[in-house]
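Reopening this ticket.

The earlier resolution said the output was attached, but the attachment link was broken on my side. Pasting everything inline this time so it's all in one place.
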Amino acid sequence: MEIKVPHLAENVENGTIVSILVQEGDVVKKDQPVVEIETAKAVAPIPSPVAGRVARIHVKTGEEVPVGKTLVTVAEDGVSAAKEKTPVEKATLKKIKKPAQEMAEESPVEEAPEAQTADSGIPPAAPPSVRKVARQLGIDLRQVGGSERGGRITLNDVKAYIAKLQKRAEAGAGVVPAKPAGHAVQSIDFSKWGPVTRKKLSSLRKTIGQRVTESWNTIPHVTQFDEADITKLMEYRKKYGEAYETRKGHLTITSFAIKAAVTALKKFPLVNSSLDEAADEVVYKEYFHIGIAVDTEAGLIVPVIRDADKKSLLQISVELDQLAERTRRRKVSLEELEGASFTISNLGGIGSAHFTPIVNKPNVAILGIGRGGPKPVFVNNKLEARILLPLALSYDHRVVDGADGARFIRAFVEALEQIPESDVRAS
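Inline output:
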């Protein structure tokens, strides 16, 4: 039995081996983890689907592995389970390894559809098998038009694209480059000016870089600033904080912000939506899953509080504590990192004030929270010291106009300032 890298999550095509939990000759049980892989933003254990003895380990720690790569061979009943491939498997492998021309000529193909995502920077929709073929043939799927619903790419689309390139080449039109043109990247020798230390980018760091670059390059950002008076909330924290801690939760500004965000999102559902670029549709979500940016030693990770509208302040506080702790220890699952409809990033604990957060695609908005502090404010024509919280709402201007952004952040401020003591006390 060959244990391979499974399909771990949407748009996750590879990962890095962070630990190998067995050695050759070890006896393993069914469902016993044998390897841990860092993929996207989580560390996922890969279990053995059978009981047996480890016959061979095919990877090493730190190695980057694609989906489908063989990790470990397990021999059942002491006999190697590596068996001869079936005729169907042999034919499939032979087809994958064929030159592009043979593959294109193997069967008639329709005219290649026009690429829908060639210049958007968005990973195109395609099954893992098609992605594997494209990698082996050196084809950029962003140049291939998908014929299925939503622009999903099939193997026939790849064949049609190859045929299209061949026709252009034969006609002297040249070949479309595999990668979009850009500035040349070169390595600089910084050591000629003094001592340096180099450290390889982690899989997580590279993923963060790719995603924020994609969001920044494809989303026209607008950031709206405001402040909220949280004097009353700070009094609630002093009054009820200890009671929350006895129930394994912390009454934090983030907990309050999640409740207020749900109230504002219900009033302005456009901010709780996503843009389906392939279908030219805005997808309005009827659920309220709030992503919370968590600072970890490895980098920024965004786990999700699901169905925040159905939970009390105490339930949110307890879940937030547990989720953040597991995220920092890299024990959060991939499922817990997906499905956010809105994101909150709170840097107040570090000491930051206003900042411009980058939209967490495919969300259309993200709320940045800074550190609150006392400021002089006129209340009923009297100057008082009030605690004001700096806020920054970044949003996708293709979906959310400036007026909508301003209305939403004002609705959030009002909801935050008006959280009743009864809600805190009831929890």
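Reporter confirms the inline version is readable. The two ends are 51 Å apart (CA to CA). The domain at 2-75 is CATH 2.40.50.100 (OB fold (Dihydrolipoamide Acetyltransferase, E2P)).
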